[in-house]
Sequence to fold (116 residues):
Amino acid sequence: MPRSVNHVASRKRRKRVLSLTRGYFGGRRNVWTVAKNTWEKGLQYAYRDRKNNKRNFRALWIQRINAAARLEGMSYSKLMGAIHKSGIEMNRKVLADLAMNHPEAFRAIVQKAQNA
Fold:
């Protein structure tokens, strides 16, 4: 009895992967084995960088808060210690946004943290 091969499913799977590799350079776009390997590696990078993205943004927020705090005459660590001690519940994302876009509001938070 001849071997039955599901060409419809395998062709659909290959077409899907090749459509996902559109825009890649050279054989990475249209050679099946190269395109599949490139696409799978891209998924690994995407998984890793979803984690790294959070790390990078937190570092950026800390740098922005530190720069704004030093304009107010405090270091980042002293400011964060004072904020926690005074009971101000505000995360670094919001603090960095205030430091960049609303310096007067950030100054008020620093004053409140220093006084408490």
The domain at 9-115 is CATH 1.10.1900.20 (c-terminal domain of poly(a) binding protein). The chain has one domain: 9-115. Helices lie at 7-20, 27-30, 32-71, 76-86, 92-101, 103-115. DSSP finds six helices and no strands in the chain.
